Amino acid sequence: MSISRRTAARSVRMLGVTAASAALALSASGTALACEIGDFSAAAGCDGTKGVITVTDKDATGVEAKVTVFLENNNADVRQVGAEQIVKGSAEGTTITFAEDWEPGAVYRVHIEAPTAKKPVSADISPNLTTPSKACKADDTSTPTTTPSSTPSDTVPPPAETVTASPSPSDSASESSAPPVSAGNVPSAAAQESNLAETGAGSNTGLIVGIAAALVAVGGGAVFFGMRRRGASHR
Q1: Ranges of each domain in the chain
Q2: CA atoms of 40 and 65, how far apart (whole Å)
Q3: Which one, 41, 129, 189, 234, has the greatest CB density within 10 A?
Q4: How many angstroms separate the Cα of 46 from the Cα of each of 50, 86, 103, 228?
């Protein structure tokens, strides 16, 4: 069975189209799997009260890339943020973190280098990273100082003045009329004991009283017998 020239030409055209399609597909897949600067992104955030800068690599080929971050001022590098870090990308995205207490509105340049990629990369993430307008930690100096109002319970009363009572005329008169008692006029304990002895308040008081009573009894008896004798003589 012979093949016509027209059929042969059609088959050749179909093979050419298929080959071209395969070449385009391979080219597209190779481009999609290449490491590019577009695979990288940067953001400024907070880790609690600390500021951080994160860089994410979504290179599906997993090519290692070196990441360096710089603080910018008027399109010039002021300082490098920390040390450079190595990141190995993934389809889901691999993230690395730089600790930085950034200020609101600050600008950072993030530089990427991937020399082992199919097409080596040495470029900055565009545009530069600008931090948010609000810092992670509020400035202590911006906090207004409130002065507590004084309440009646918090007010300390002034110390009470010492009032010296002035003597009344009657008190002055009584004090002036009463002569001061001198120490010489106060009888001592020895003088009191001697006075008690002179008045018979000593230890011989009982004996003296007994003798006096006996003498009174004898005298009374004598008087009684004398009067009795005188009566008998008159008879």
Answers
A1: 37-130, 195-235
A2: 10
A3: 129
A4: 6, 22, 12, 144
Tally of CB atoms within 10 A around 175: 10
Q: Could you tell me the sign of the dihedral formed by the alpha carbons of 46, 50, 51, 56, in that order?
A: negative
The encoded tokens of residue 63 equal 């090519």
pLDDT beyond 80 at 14: no
Please check whether residue 57 is in contact with residue 40, taking contact to mean a CB–CB distance below 8 angstroms: yes
Determine which of 138-152, 155-169, 186-200 has the lowest per-residue pLDDT on average.
Answer: 186-200
Angle value at C-alpha 176, between 174 and 182, nearest 5 degrees: 110
Cβ atoms of 109 and 128 within 8 Å: the answer is yes
Percent helix, percent strand, percent coil in the chain, to nearest 5: 35, 25, 40
- Indicate the length of the chain as a whole number: 235
Q: What is the pLDDT of residues 37-89, one digit of tens each?
A: 999 999 999 999 999 999 999 999 999 999 999 999 999 999 999 999 999 99
User: What are the φ/ψ torsions at residue 53 (nearest 5 degrees)?
Assistant: -120, 125
CA torsion through residues 40, 44, 47, 50, sign: positive
How many Å apart are CA 57 and CA 53, to the nearest integer?
A: 14
* Domain at 37-130: CATH code: 2.60.40.2420
Which helix (H) or strand (E) element contains residue 14?
helix 5-32
